[in-house]
Amino acid sequence: MKKADSILGCINRTIGEAAPAAAPAPAPAPAPAPAPAAEAAATPYVGLRRPLGYQLAKATKERIWRGEFIDLFSLLHTELAPEHGPRPGDTLDQWVSAFLVYASVVCEKHPARCGAMFKYLDTIRKLHATYGGTSWMSYDEDFRRRAAKDPNLPWGDVDLDLWMKWMAPLKSLVSRHHRAESEPQAAPPPPPPPPSSSSSQSPKQEEKSQTP
Q: What is the pTM of this model?
């Protein structure tokens, strides 16, 4: 009996030595990356990291890269949500917003033209500050139509033909306006002298004063 027990113990020890070690517990799987929509919802200003014109259709960008004429204010329809952005109009502020989108798309494809784009923006700003009205918009539209036909037209220079067409007629009006503001205004006529004490007496008072 003891011999049988010793044999069983020997067998058990042999099986225990031959059994493989327990496998370690698997490492926890990494958390999945947040979806782009969830990331955008968590960061309310995610759009500020994107370039101007990122919402424009590829066809619109292709037209700009080909140098075709495009209505600048149409770029505001997609760049600014209608309920949050200004309505396209004829104000300089809205024109600047639209032109910055346009110039950003141009410089994306042609970085060497960035300097000329900023120079053109400064030219339009100065025309608006000097002459006011809407002639600066007419100059801009005519210039960009010419640039669509002539890709070599320099954006950094003032087009003298268009300046003579739209700005020269206003130069005389601006000069007269400034001259009128600089001329001293005529002094108002002096008030009449107050009446003397003798002339202010009535005839009856004069008779009483002369009676002994």
A: 0.57
